[in-house]
Design goal:
With about 300 residues, the protein is of the alpha+beta class. The chain is built from seven helices and twelve strands. Strands 4-12-9-5-8-7-6 form a seven-stranded mixed sheet, with helices on both faces. It has a three-stranded antiparallel sheet with strand order 3-11-10. It is globular. The chain starts with a helix and ends with a helix.
């Protein structure tokens, strides 16, 4: 009985470490990543099963005037569900040579976990940016923005998205480093320092036209994108640990006295309504940009 209790305690301690290590990686990932926090994380089901159901809002709940004698007419809102495949996989498998799992110094483990979270955050942001660019709708405005035109451009695009059913509080704006520098010269831009510590700590750099602004250096230069207006309703991201992070002894017949930080996180992403994501690009040759925009928007329409 005592032997069994000892084994149970060892198993519990192992799980406790896995939970702690996984939480440390996630904390760094969320601090590094911008876009994983901006997407809709709601779902039904179990991600590790391979797919989940995500609710997609079609209409708002109707509100009417109540008549005390007649009551009120019954209405029925519409929410459809789409299947989101959890078909992507990120892993950590970092060799720690010279230490078995039980003897790895805590500071070395912490350094590896911090690095793993950072790398995963950068990788996921790049992937989610590409998802938005490939599935969003291009702005008709292809002229490079200046401090005098950036505010009007964003106001016009936000107004167009409002007509598509989005609320101002549901939208967010991601800008390149170059456009952020332009925003700083615009009098309509409200810097993060004027909005309070909470804004700065959560990665937002300010607000313009009523929506929060995030700066990212992960938008590739060759995409020629100046900004992306997304939302936390129709941009979906779901993830979960398939194998929680742990420090494990290597018993592969090759490594001796070595261990590794190992873990796997599965996830899926989707833009369920492409017309609710706006991509503002700028290309020197306007005719080429118009052709590229028409081709991509036509491709997106076919995919709906």
């Amino acid at each position: 009985m005592k032997y069994k209790e000892l084994i149970d305690l060892q198993i519990f301690a192992g799980h406790e470490k896995q939970d702690r290590y996984s939480s440390m990686v996630l904390a760094k990932l969320r601090k590094t990543s911008i876009f994983t926090k901006l997407f809709n994380r709601k779902y039904e089901g179990t991600p590790t099963a391979g797919a989940v159901k995500i609710p997609v809002r079609d209409t708002e709940v109707a509100v009417g005037d109540y008549d005390k004698s007649k009551g009120g007419e019954m209405s029925q809102g519409t929410t459809t569900y789409k299947t989101l495949p959890i078909d992507k996989d990120k892993y950590v498998n970092e060799l720690i040579d010279g230490y078995d799992a039980a003897s790895v110094p805590d500071n070395l483990v912490a350094d590896r976990l911090d690095s793993a979270g950072y790398s995963m955050g950068i990788s996921l942001d790049s992937e989610l940016i590409n998802l938005l660019i490939e599935n969003g709708t291009f702005s008709a405005n292809t002229t490079a923005l200046t401090k005098d035109t950036v505010y009007d451009s964003i106001v016009d695009e936000v107004a167009a998205l409002k007509k598509k059913g989005l609320n101002i509080t549901e939208m967010w704006l991601a800008v390149t480093n170059e456009l952020y520098a332009t925003l700083l010269k615009s009098p309509e831009f409200i810097k993060a320092s004027a909005l309070g510590d909470d804004v700065v700590q959560n990665g937002r750099v300010g607000k313009i036209a009523g929506i929060d602004v995030y700066e990212t250096n992960n938008i590739p230069d060759d995409k020629k994108v100046e900004y992306i207006i997304g939302n936390n309703v129709f941009c979906h991201y779901v993830d979960e640990w398939l194998v929680p992070v742990g420090v494990n002894d290597l018993k592969d017949g090759k490594h001796i006295g070595a261990s590794a930080v190992q873990g796997r996180r599965v996830y899926g992403n989707m833009v369920s309504r492409t017309e609710t994501v706006t991509i503002k690009k700028s290309i020197a040759n306007a005719s080429e940009e118009q052709n590229a925009s028409e081709e991509q928007n036509a491709s997106v329409s076919l995919d709906k």
